[in-house]
Amino acid sequence: MAAITVHDKAFSIYLPEATLQKRIRELADAVNTDYAGQKVYFLAILNGSFMFAADFFKYLTIESEICFIKLVSYKGLKSTGDVTTAIGLEEDLHDKNVVILEDIIDTGKTLHFFLPQLQHQQPRSLKIVALLHKAEMTKFDVSIDYTGFVIPNKFVVGYGLDYDGLGRNYRDIYQLAAD
Ligand code: 5GP
Ligand code: MG
Predict the structure, then answer these.
(1) Distance in Å, CA 109 to ligand 1 centroid
(2) Helix (H, G, I), strand (E, B) or coil at 154
(3) Ligand 1 site residues, Cβ closer than 6 angstroms
(4) Model-level pTM?
(5) Can you give the residue ranges of every domain in the chain?
(6) Which of 53, 89, 92, 169 has CA 20 to 30 A from 9's CA?
(7) Helix H or strand E encompassing 4
């Protein structure tokens, strides 16, 4: 479909399925090469990354485990700023090669506050795969190791990404149409 409506807004096609799949395969191939002979523990961040994680995972040839976690942010009790905790992370990450799978990195805030908690568990290595990166919007320090597409600051939906709960079901990614 060239255009869709989600709630009250019109979106036009931006990254078609074939483009996404080709790039996701390239990302997985890079990870397969970089971790050849090693085992990787993937952490997929819900909800948005469920579709990306499923497709990416199918292209892996290295020994791979995956865990889906949800990040919840709240204000710290003291003036320490935001705190991000992970729901669903039961495994100890000590000495594991951990790779995070994120659908989109915008300001970088979510991962910036979450990464120290993972580092605390002393994984052997910790890397990030992001399908989309709104590079011009990123203000928090997050080093992305594998980026699918650098995109402009326009709201996107589809392929797991939602607009107020809807739109996740599309196999292509759509961009908010100009008003
Ligand atoms: P960050 O913490 O990097 O600013 O934000 C990351 C989160 O913001 C993403 O996981 C996603 O939930 C949301 N987000 C940022 N930009 C978009 C967008 O264009 N579309 C959708 N659907 N979510 C977005
Ligand atoms: Mg996300």
Answers:
(1) 10
(2) coil
(3) 48, 103-110, 155-157, 161-163
(4) 0.95
(5) 16-176
(6) 53
(7) strand 3-6
